């Protein structure tokens, strides 16, 4: 990667574009403006499009009839950086060591979409044009579920009409190992609040005669799974597609065994639904997770209190063909049926995203695989699904009718959403070359 490209990447990483924190609203917009300016400097037409939330950046080259239209999608917003004390340096003051850049957003998603910008910039500089009609869309709300992008897609169908969409916002199975993701899990969020007495009570004066909301919530949460690690909500698995034999076979040969998962996570051992391998559990099976919970006294020492309420934040990862709204209904019915009359249960429905799955050999899949081979020295791409979610991908299909090619550049140890998130400059280079190969292969397909 040349010095100017690296310097520009570091500039992009300096914006604390944290979409969920209202205090960073101005930083998010400044980041969007930087991206617009960069597109214009590359010779593309670019616009900052205001929305009800953070702005969308839209750019394109001069479109000509008779060529394929390709949309590249990315997100310039990032996750919060906390816990700050676990970072080796401030998260928005990027550091380069041994060719690896550390900063919040380095992989998710600034490094990955900026690599595509560099590919386009290189092609325009050398050839003066691209082999396809290009639309480049970079949003600022992916990490909060893309609430404004869906109406933006609906309002701009014409401007966004394309043959296929490509994005790099998923993982590689190993360094230097090209990876094509043909599936994403969806998700749906719920927040539970269990209320008992009107205020915290002395647990000696009242304990035993008044229900403890923390205990009631613990029992409700425990009822979500059975002994075999399956989700015990009636109907939860309705419509779940079986893992295909070819997938089992392909995944068992990947350099991503259970040893690597133990090493990456530091967990004492792996766990999950009986009858499935770890990769199958992550990529092809739905889950119920507690993302946060709280109740009662959290300070040092002991306090004999009977808390008045308890809460838990839940998300369910979904696979084809589960429907987020139906899953919410089923979980709510399950919890309500089990909630004792001695407490009140309030349930708030949260954001959702549908799962996504395509045949990796259909459509432009073969062209994408050729581009991956060309970029990574002829190595055969791994065909994988992802446990993570990029909800907008299913919306692209629903609203624009276009399939998405998920050509991830995130390494297993990139620490996205965690302290010391990092991205190797090598992948910036790979990504830029991949972009050029991809546009050529799609133009020729
Ligand atoms: N890029 C990630 C999703 C991802 C990570 C896919 C790793 C595959 C491998 C994305 O930015 C993300 O974190 N999405 C959120 C969803 C959102 C609605 C909060 C997720 O998966 O939790
Ligand atoms: Mn992302």
What attributes does this structure have?
four-stranded antiparallel sheet, about 450 residues, binds manganese (II) ion, Alpha-Beta Plaits, alpha+beta, Aminopeptidase, single chain, 12 helices, binds ligand BES, 2 domains
Tell me what the structure shows.
This protein is α+β, with helices and mostly antiparallel strands. It folds into two domains: 3-184 and 355-444, Aminopeptidase (3-Layer(aba) Sandwich); 186-240 and 286-353, Alpha-Beta Plaits. Helices cover 33% and strands 22% of the residues. The chain is built from twelve helices and 18 strands. The protein has helices spanning 3-13, 25-42, 106-127, 149-155, 213-222, 245-252, 258-265, 278-284, 324-338, 365-375, 392-400, 425-444, and strands at 45-49, 56-60, 69-75, 95-97, 100-102, 133-139, 164-167, 179-184, 186-195, 201-202, 287-295, 305-306, 309-318, 344-353, 356-357, 382-386, 404-406, 422-424. The strands form five sheets. A six-stranded mixed beta sheet has the order 1-2-6-3-7-17, sandwiched between helices. Strand 1 (45-49) and strand 2 form a beta hairpin. The longest helix is centred in the N-terminal third of the chain and has 22 residues, at 106-127. It is globular. It starts with a helix and ends with a helix. The mean pLDDT is 97. Ligand BES binds at residues 108, 142-143, 145, 169-171, 353, 386, 388-391, 410, 416.
């Amino acid at each position: 990667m040349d010095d100017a490209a690296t310097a520009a990447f570091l500039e992009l990483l300096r914006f604390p574009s944290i979409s969920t924190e209202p205090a960073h609203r101005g930083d998010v917009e400044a980041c969007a403006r930087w991206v617009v300016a960069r597109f214009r400097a590359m010779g593309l037409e670019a616009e900052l499009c205001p929305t009800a939330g953070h702005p969308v950046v839209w750019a394109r080259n001069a479109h000509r009839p008779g060529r394929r239209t390709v949309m590249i999608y990315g997100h310039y917003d990032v996750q919060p950086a906390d816990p700050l004390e676990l970072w080796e340096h401030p998260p928005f003051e990027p550091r380069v060591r041994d060719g690896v850049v550390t900063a919040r957003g380095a992989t998710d998603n600034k490094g990955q979409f900026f690599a595509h910008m560099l590919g386009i910039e290189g092609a325009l500089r050398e050839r003066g044009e691209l082999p396809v009609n290009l639309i480049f869309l970079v949003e600022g709300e992916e990490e909060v579920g893309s609430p404004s992008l869906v109406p933006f897609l609906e309002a701009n169908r014409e401007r966004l009409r394309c043959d296929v969409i490509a994005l790099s916002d998923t993982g590689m199975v190993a360094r230097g190992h090209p990876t094509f993701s043909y599936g994403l899990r969806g998700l749906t969020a719920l927040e539970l609040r269990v209320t008992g007495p009107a205020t915290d009570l002395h647990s000696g004066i009242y304990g035993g005669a008044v229900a403890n909301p923390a205990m009631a919530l613990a029992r409700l949460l425990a009822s979500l799974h059975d002994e075999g690690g399956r989700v015990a909500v009636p109907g939860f698995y309705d419509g779940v597609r079986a893992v295909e034999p070819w997938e089992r076979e392909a995944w068992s040969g990947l350099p991503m065994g259970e040893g690597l998962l133990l090493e990456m996570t530091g967990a004492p051992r792996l766990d999950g639904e009986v009858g499935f391998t770890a990769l199958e559990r992550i990529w092809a099976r739905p889950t119920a997770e507690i993302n946060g919970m709280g109740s009662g006294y959290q300070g040092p020492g002991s306090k004999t209190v009977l808390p008045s309420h308890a809460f838990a934040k839940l998300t369910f990862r979904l696979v084809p063909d589960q429907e987020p709204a139906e899953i919410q209904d089923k979980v709510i019915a399950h919890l309500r049926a089990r909630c004792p009359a001695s407490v009140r249960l309030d349930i708030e429905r949260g954001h959702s995203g549908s799962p996504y799955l395509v045949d990796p050999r259909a459509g432009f899949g073969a062209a994408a695989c050729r581009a991956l081979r060309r970029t990574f020295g002829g190595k055969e791409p791994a065909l994988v699904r992802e446990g993570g979610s990029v909800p907008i991908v299913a919306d692209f299909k629903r609203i624009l009718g276009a399939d998405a090619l998920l050509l991830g550049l995130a390494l297993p140890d990139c620490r996205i959403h965690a302290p010391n998130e990092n991205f190797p400059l090598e992948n910036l280079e790979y990504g830029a070359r991949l972009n050029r190969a991809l546009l050529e292969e799609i133009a020729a397909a």
